[in-house]
Amino acid sequence: MNFQRFEHVNQLCKDIAATRQFYQTLFPDWYVRAEGEDSGWRWMHLGNHQFYLALNQPPQSEHSDSTGHVDHIGFVIKDGEAMKAVLEQNNIPYEVYHSPETKNRIYVTDPDGTELEFVEYQVDYTLK
Questions:
Q1: Of 5, 24, 9, 118, which is closest to residue 55 (Cα–Cα)?
Q2: Which of 32, 53, 77, 109 maximizes the CB count within 10 A of its CB?
Q3: Can you give the residue ranges of the VOC domain (predicted)?
Q4: Superfamily in which the 8-121 domain is placed by CATH
């Protein structure tokens, strides 16, 4: 297989600063790997040494309903209860879905309308 690892998801943002704050609330160890502006577009790579979110904010003249172009982003997490605590402490609404292979499957929507799925697998579940 040529695939090595998940690297990034590219997302259009209404407000890149609000989106950054949202993700850094959920993942406090994430940092800005690179950022800049090109032809009025603001961009930022937010993540860690393994992967990142490529956030892009169009110029005000080009803002439209096109922001938030990602159906959902899935993250495997170690502790679903800790994630729910962070969400509750920050008044971020979430929904929980139960399935046999997961301890927690938590859904939340970011400021741009992109749905996130936080999955904590059962200890004995082997990914197929």
A1: 9
A2: 53
A3: 5-121
A4: 2,3-Dihydroxybiphenyl 1,2-Dioxygenase, domain 1 (3.10.180.10)
The Cα–Cα gap between 114 and 110 comes to 5
Quick: pLDDT tens for 53-101: 999 998 876 555 666 677 678 888 889 999 999 999 999 999 999 888 8
DSSP one-letter string for 98-128: --TTEEEEEEEE-TTS-EEEEEEE-TT----
- Residue 47 burial class via C-beta count within 10 angstroms: exposed 0-12, middle 13-18, buried 19 and up: buried
Annotated domain spans of the chain: 8-121
Taking the CB of residue 115, how many other CB atoms lie within 10 A of it? 15
